[in-house]
Amino acid sequence: MKKVLKLILPIALLVLALAFVTACRNDDEPAAVVEDDATPEPVDEVEDVNEEDDVNDEDDEDEYVPDDVVNADWVRIALVAHSPDSILDDFSFNAGAWVGIQAFLATHGLPAGNADFFQPHEASDVARIDLINSVIESGFNILILPGFHFESSLYEAQDLFPDVKFVLLDASPRNDGVARVESNVAAIHYAEHEAGFLAGYAAVMEGHTSLGFMGGIAVPAVVRFGHGFLQGAEHAANSLGLESGEVSVNYMYLGGFAPDPAHTTTAAAWFAGGTEVIFAAAGGAGGSVKAGAEGADALVIGVDVDQSTLSDTVITSAMKALDVSVYDMLTDFLNGQFRGGDVLMFNAAVNGIGLPMDTSRFGTFTQAQYDAIFNQLASGAVAVNSSLEMGDILPGLELVTVNDM
């Protein structure tokens, strides 16, 4: 299995990442909410999981001995892609995770060789498990696996490699619909419904009333982004005193996450029909939506990471704190406190989601307005429905009209 040559992220990005990690963590607060089951739901209170005795894997006591100076040389980190087409510089999950890894290396003065990026030779569970085996044989002891594609392969791998730690992003190990998280796996989930809510709220507060949502595939994370987007638009319409039907949303799933000229054509048609801004929760397909926006002098909302540098059409991005969550998991691993066996939710209460206000291109929506609505989410004063049992379109909206495309 050939390793792909690592792409070196800009030094400036790493500095920003370190600052973001520091700003988002408060030693008096937990990094994430621990869920009891494998289907995360929003919660009103945050547990201090670091105070629970049972979250520590007993085997970790042999791996780590506290000292005045923590020696992190033994930590070997592998970021494993789900397919040969999943590149490191994807401006999404891989790139966000890699920033967290690089921040961890920089914090502990570790050389670049303590982390590497790997791709399987094909997009299959067999290829992924073979790659995981190869990576472990090469000496890597903690593997970061981004995305739901690893659900089935990690369900098997967690038993095959009990002495290796895995961090699964945006999913839980699952087989035939049954989730099982062993003590060597930390399953990280993000409150996409809250991130989508903030995006929809900001768009309407900015003055846009003709919106669009283009999701890649109707998997749970993408559905939650879309449902949250609609609820945020509804909340803003109510706050502004708008009449029923004044805000409309074209809503569709593209059927994939890969770029496609057809997606550009569809986006261009929406913009020509009056859509002002499209929330593209579609991975690489979001680039096609941005291309449609550039030709129409329209706007796009990015997803997962800050995508403001990709196009001047990106007004903001519905972000998950991928770098923070990865950094936290690596730090816990180093300190012998790996939270294996748990499903961890990164939500507003722990700064696990948000909009990048410093790089957003708002003209009307202010930092003070953002802080107010974010704090309401974090405190539970505003609750966002994350249910997936409602089909493709969220019912019960009174002010926002949804056009199922």
Structure description:
With 405 residues, the chain is of the alpha/beta class. The chain has helices at residues 11-24, 60-63, 93-107, 125-137, 151-160, 192-205, 220-239, 261-272, 285-296, 322-334, 367-379, and strands spanning 33-35, 77-80, 115-118, 142-146, 165-169, 174-175, 178-179, 185-190, 210-215, 247-253, 277-281, 299-304, 314-320, 342-346, 353-354, 400-404. The strands form 3 sheets. A 7-stranded mixed sheet has the order 1-14-8-5-4-2-3, with helices on both faces. A 7-stranded mixed sheet has the order 15-13-12-11-9-10-16, with helices on both faces. Strand 2, helix 3 (93-107) and strand 3 form a beta-alpha-beta unit. The radius of gyration is 21 Å and the shape is globular.
Any idea what the shape is?
globular
Largest sheet: 7 strands, mixed
**In what order do the strands lie side by side in the largest sheet?**
1-14-8-5-4-2-3
Number of β-strand runs: 16
Highest-level CATH class of the largest domain: Alpha Beta
Which strand-content bin applies to the residues? 15-25%
The CATH architecture of the largest domain:
3-Layer(aba) Sandwich
CATH topology of the largest domain: Rossmann fold
State the fourth-level CATH superfamily of the largest domain: Response regulator
Percentage of helical residues? 25-40%
Q: H/E element string? A: HEHEHEHEHEEEEHEHEHEHEEHEEHE
Q: Rg to the nearest angstrom?
A: 21 Å
Overall average residue pLDDT = 85
- What is the distance, rounded to the nearest whole angstrom, between the alpha carbons of the first and last residues? 42 Å
Please count the helical segments: 11
The tally of structural domains comes to 2
Unreliable residue runs: 1-30, 36-68
Oligomer: single chain
Helix/strand structural class: alpha/beta
